[in-house]
Design brief:
This protein is of the alpha/beta class. It contains five helices and seven strands. It holds the Pfam family adh_short.
Length: about 230
Amino acid sequence: MHVFITGANRGIGLTFVKQYLNLGWRVTACCRDLETANELVALTARYESLTTVEIDLENLDELQVNDLALPTDLIDLVIHNAGYYGPKKVRFENIDLSEWRKVLEVNTLAPLLLSELLYPKLNITGNCALVFISSKVGSMADNTSGGGYYYRSSKAALNSVVKSLAIDLTSVGVKCVALHPGWVLTDMGGPHALISTDTSVAGMISVIGSLTQQQSGAFLDFQGKSIPW
């Protein structure tokens, strides 16, 4: 089994890499700059089943899938984990359009475009899935505090992308799902978060492993519970 993971140099992405390697999967791990991804690169000395790839999700216009030098194995699972929060504490009357565009580029546009690029490499005759790491803050129903315009809107838009993609790929049996990893102890989640990356990722791997075609297009948390749109 072969999994392709973006944002794999730290936090949730790196934990996905470690846990799937330990499960015996072939892993293609992507990040923007391998020169600074010391822990990820160190894993390549221990696991022949690990391939590392540089991808800049802010610059996908010219990217061709053949540029990535992927393993020949077809891809059974894509995890779109890379994300960018942007400036924090953004409130009304304090909007920076260039930063907002960057957040949307990484969190919303890139996952769909990369899915298109990878589609010819997907094992669509197998139990293939596209997983998009979203966030509960993208839920309209859950928004009771306002603010967070950039990140909220990017994840709400991502959820819409996942729903449409799930419908479009139903005929070929590719499952698509948006997952909320929980409030995780990462650079983005901060020191007051509630769960570790190990707990979050183990939960998401369990959810991914049990996904049914009927759940394609759903918005779920790391325990498999449905989140309102």
